[in-house]
Amino acid sequence: MKNRPNPDEVLNELLVNLFKSIMEIEEKYLITPEFKDISVNDMHIIEAVGRKEPKSMSTVAKLMSVTTGTLTKSMDGLSEKGYVVRERGEKDKRVVFVSLTKKGIRAFLHHESFHRSMIERIKDGINEQETTALIYALAKLNDYFNRIYAL
Fold first, then answer.
1. Could you tell me which residues are beta bridge partners of residue 84?
2. What number is the average pLDDT over the span 139-143?
3. Mean pLDDT along residues 78-85
4. CA atoms of 84 and 103, how far apart (whole Å)
5. Crossing angle of helices 102-124/40-49, nearest 10°?
6. To which H or E segment does residue 86 belong?
7. Helices vs strands, H then E, count in the chain
8. What band does 150 get if pLDDT is binned at 50, 70 and 90?
9. I need a surface site. Which of 54, 68, 94, 122 has the fewest CB within 10 A?
């Protein structure tokens, strides 16, 4: 009788490899000659700032699950490199709002393109029923990690 793989070991290996692969692929795709002066983490900050109206630093920090102090250090670099601008609030001068520059918007669109391409390629290899099952499984996994993180 053939030994069957341990499902827990298989699941662990798949999760570890998937996380590692996504991080490596994202870094290869995102860090191009145009955006070689920033990191993947910087790209995620740019994504959190978004293209719409300016966001407060505290809002972006919450989206990134970091402290405002940690975010400030990253924003200093992004501001110096011309990706974001910071402005004090008109009503409350203690509040700092951030928004993307034209260069920041180009980085945002580049990052967004990576994610669209990744989803297209994933869906290209599976049928509608498998897509539904994948969404269901990933949603459950996401809920699990959100519950653990909330503890």
1. 100
2. 92
3. 97
4. 8
5. 100
6. strand 84-88
7. 6, 3
8. low
9. 94
DSSP state, residue 96: E
Order of all β-strands in the sheet with 96-100:
55-56, 96-100, 84-88
* Structure tokens belonging to residue 4: 């069957």
**Confidence band, pLDDT 50/70/90 cuts, at residue 4:** confident
Spatial CB neighbours of 15, under 8 Å, sequence gap ≥ 6: none
For residue 118, count other CB atoms closer than 10 A to its CB: 14
Token pair, residue 58, equals 């505290």
CA 69-71-75 angle, to 5 degrees, is: 120
Instruction: Please say if the pLDDT value at position 41 is more than 80.
Output: yes
**Is the whole model's pTM more than 0.70, yes or no?**
yes
Q: What is the rounded end-to-end Cα distance, in angstroms, of the chain?
A: 43
Which residues is 99 bridged to in the sheet?
A: 85
Q: How many CB atoms lie within 10 A of CB 61?
A: 21
**Residue 115 structure tokens:** 């994610």
